[in-house]
Q: What sequence folds into this?
């Protein structure tokens, strides 16, 4: 049986073209709203809130809060994916996760101590990953293998779209943190309700029940599959390199980069983000479409990861506003193409169609897991070496290792 046959849903329901186009738009909105929360809170609101609470220890506190909260993200994503497989439905998990995240964001915006900020962000990470697990599984559920690159590119636009919207909302509400948290939560909840209202669940057989003793082995069984394992490793390295730097961007702009006179770090992020996200949007679309047309995935994934690694030297050589603009554009090109085409690669190496959400949830450990390590590692590097230059070097090296991992995938060209 071919890889393409393995990932087809057991009972595919052919939908007319307009419905499929509607599905793609709804998935774009759902994923964009999710990333608006992650980027808006993680890049602007959370660092600002922590800096207000304890400016002297902001780097260390952000590292601890980010690391601990990512443990919740890592755990809840695959668990929620497995549960949605068991029920055979996605929409209840999408809506439930989004509404619970709105409540968590409301709590986060109301607290004023580092401990409660940490608890609040853990709640948001947990509930947003319930949402994410169900939304992620819809692509392998409903999109034919031949169109995975195109579909992944469309969904991949969520990063530039959602990231830009999230950072813009956060930057405009940085003086009113509670409002910023509530607006971002409302955006996610609204997108989830739209998806559930206009995209009914496809009828699918629930995944069979597994005895308790076998659940953990079954849960991680996809990692025993050669190609899936190397796709997992490559994604983990790339995400670790990216978030080691991006997670501290507000502080990098404040403490490392020479900004133009009168420009605040939050204003700088609001200008840099559209540059990075526009580049991501371009490379996401071009990479996804060309990977389908040429039926080649690995070359796009490898080259884009290498580009993202090499450009990390730019803020080291030129710690200026111009240097950051160039870095943001090139890093966006690399990361956008990587995430779009790598998602197509992953859907093509899933071991079993009936376990799609569970295995995509396991893959999402490669998204969330490195974010556990990244804040601790980044905080330790900055604290130990007294600056951000070593952080850029480590981030670049990790991305380059991610590019090398792609070579070891056999079942995808």
A:
């Amino acid at each position: 049986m071919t890889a393409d046959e393995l990932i087809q849903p057991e009972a595919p329901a052919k939908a007319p073209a307009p419905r499929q186009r509607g599905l793609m738009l709804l998935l774009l909105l759902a994923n964009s709203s999710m990333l608006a929360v992650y980027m808006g809170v993680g890049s602007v609101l959370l660092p600002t809130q922590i800096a207000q609470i304890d400016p002297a220890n902001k780097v260390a506190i952000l590292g601890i809060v980010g690391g601990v909260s990512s443990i919740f993200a890592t755990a809840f994503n695959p668990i929620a994916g497995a549960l949605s497989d068991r029920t055979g439905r996605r929409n209840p998990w999408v809506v439930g996760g989004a509404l619970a995240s709105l409540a968590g964001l409301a709590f986060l915006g109301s607290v004023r101590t580092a401990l409660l900020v940490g608890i609040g962000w853990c709640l948001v990470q947990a509930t947003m990953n319930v949402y994410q697990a169900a939304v992620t599984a819809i692509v392998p559920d409903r999109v034919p293998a031949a169109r995975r690159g195109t579909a992944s590119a469309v969904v991949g636009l969520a990063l530039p779209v959602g990231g830009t919207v999230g950072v813009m909302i956060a930057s405009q509400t940085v003086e009113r943190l509670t409002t910023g948290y509530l607006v971002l939560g409302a955006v996610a909840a609204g997108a989830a309700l739209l998806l559930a209202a206009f995209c009914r669940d496809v009828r699918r057989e629930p995944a069979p029940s597994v005895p308790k003793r076998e659940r953990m082995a079954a849960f991680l069984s996809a990692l025993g599959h050669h190609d899936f394992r190397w796709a997992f490793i490559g994604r983990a390295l790339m995400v670790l390199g990216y978030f080691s730097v991006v997670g501290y961007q507000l502080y990098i702009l404040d403490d490392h980069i020479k900004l133009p006179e009168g420009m605040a770090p939050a204003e700088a992020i609001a200008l840099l983000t559209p540059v990075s996200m526009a580049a991501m949007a371009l490379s996401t679309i071009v990479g996804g479409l060309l990977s389908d047309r040429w039926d080649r995935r690995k070359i796009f994934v490898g080259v884009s990861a290498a580009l993202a690694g090499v450009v990390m030297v730019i803020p080291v050589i030129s710690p200026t506003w111009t240097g950051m603009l160039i870095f943001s554009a090139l890093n966006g090109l690399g990361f956008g193409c990587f995430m779009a085409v790598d998602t197509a690669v992953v859907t093509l190496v899933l071991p079993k169609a009936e376990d799609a959400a569970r295995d995509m949830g396991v893959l999402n450990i490669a998204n969330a897991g490195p974010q556990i390590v990244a804040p601790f590692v980044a905080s330790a590097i900055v604290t130990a070496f007294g600056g951000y230059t070593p952080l850029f070097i480590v981030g670049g090296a990790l991305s380059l290792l991610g590019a090398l991992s792609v070579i070891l995938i056999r079942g995808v060209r």
